[in-house]
Amino acid sequence: MRLPVCNFDLESDMLCTNCQARLERGELKHFDIEFSKWMLEKDKDYPSLSDLTLLRAARVGDKVVLVVKKRGKDLILAEETLVNNITEYFGEPIIVEGPVKLRRIVREFIHPANEVGVNSLYLPDGSKESIVMLRTEDRERISYTTDELRMIVSAAMGESVLFEFQEDRIKTEKEEEAPDEFDQRMEELGKRRY
Questions:
Q1: For residue range 36-89, what is the model confidence (pLDDT) as tens digits?
Q2: Residue 156 contacts residue 58 (beta carbons within 8 Å)
Q3: pTM
Q4: Which domains does the chain have, with CATH numbers?
Q5: Residue 92, φ and ψ in degrees, nearest 5
Q6: Contact 76, 82 (CB under 8 A)
Q7: Of 151, 156, 149, which is closest to residue 68 (Cα–Cα)?
Q8: Which has the closest alpha carbon to 154: 34, 24, 29, 53?
Q9: Secondary structure of residue 121 in the 3-state scheme
Q10: What DSSP state is assigned to residue 74?
Q11: Do β-strands 160-165 and 128-134 pair in parallel, antiparallel, or remain unpaired?
């Protein structure tokens, strides 16, 4: 079994310089370490998981997002007891096969709907944020809310991904176009003649 953290680090409760640097850069999270340690303890009970490669683990509310390499999803789901244990200790598992591509994972979670578009913003701190636009008429067809999608997909991607329906974007733009009440009052006061 391959985990996001070195097995020796998990057994010794001390991170090597490489894993420590990855943790400091944000590539590795504390939950990756916690979940990897738990999985390493389960390794003996589930020999079929020897071919599993876990890339990332993230807790999202009452769910746990696991990003695994190809065929890893089937390996985990084949072990019903393991899935029940994960659910009991960490929450309902959502297993995504990587390497994770944004459009592919978005389509997986919004199926049968399709996204309208994906825009990426590069923030001043060097981080990236993506915005996925969804069709308003697909709102009932998508089983997750935009907040749930944001949390799950962001956890799987390891970067911020926002979701918005077209109708919501139009409402926001109209609200921005509407004159501000303070500005209206100031304009009225400016027109008064003393």
A1: 999 999 888 888 888 899 999 999 988 999 999 988 999 999 999 999 999 999
A2: yes
A3: 0.77
A4: 7-97 (no CATH), 102-177 (3.30.300.20)
A5: -60, 125
A6: yes
A7: 156
A8: 29
A9: strand
A10: H
A11: parallel
